[in-house]
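Practice problem: Ribosomal RNA small subunit methyltransferase NEP1
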Amino acid sequence: MLSFKAVVLRRKRGLSGFSRFCSLGFFLRQSSSKLIEDKFWEKMTRPYGIKVNKRKERAERYDEEEDEEEEQRKLEQKQKAEESAKKKAKKESTSKAKAEEEEDEESEEESDDDDDDNDVGIPISLADPKPSKEKPGVIFVLEKASLEVAKVGKTYHLLNSEDHANFLKRNGREPNNFRPDITHQALLMILDSPVKQAGRLKAVYVRTELGVLIEVKPHVRIPRTYKRFAGLMCQLLQNLSITAKDSREKLLRVIKNPVTKYLPVGSRKIGFSRSSDKLIDMQKHIATHCNESDTVFVLGAMSHGKIECDYIEDFVAVSGYPLSAAYCVARICEALSSNWSIK
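Answer key — structure tokens:
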């Protein structure tokens, strides 16, 4: 602790250390503010002349660029005008040349006409070509086809006697009546025949035991394996049509009954049955009945039984023995190809 005397002495000598420090800070603040003011005035007095000159130079540059652009535009317009004038001159010259050629041709034609008038001869009348008569074709109808879809488990299947025998028995149905493979084989035989390749096959219709009528286009490709065929028929019976991949054409579709409204007018309807008393030679029968108009052949696509249709005009038998639908189709197509000279 300082004594009272020491404090008095320090006051007499001058200011204390703290007061000296405060006075020094004030001096420094004053000096720094003067420096800032000097710098400010230097900046305020220096830049304006330089900036104005720069702006003027830039404006001058912009004016020069605009002048150059205008000159370029004028040159382009002159070039375009010259090109259009050249084109017009070319067109006029070509039109004049064409007109001269036409006048020459007219004068030549007139001279030819004068020469023809002087000649004496028989006028030739060109007869109109006769329209080519459409060749007779064939239509197949498969009756009583066993094509039925049912939900077995969690998915839908085309019922057949081999895979769904237990399901059919539980529902009180006879498994032997469910033979969709017969329809598959018959369709393959029809669509693989030379008659179809020659373009004589007009249409194929399939009617199921439940009365569903299906139209099959002649240019459709039926799957070779039964598994794929079953999937296709299941899709057809659920969606009512099958369209081509590349186009929207319906290759297979379910249509309204009866089948007679889709058959050509004046066509002969022939049904096949082993129980018929009329046993014929297929080749001779076709030679006498199938050369003038379209012929409709009706076959049964079931394992056993007889087809009974009102629109059939004549029932015939191809053999004295029971034949499958596919083999019967093969005999018919072979007789047709030999009769129409299809090789």
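Discussion: The chain has nine helices and ten strands. Students who identified this feature from the tokens alone can consider the problem solved.
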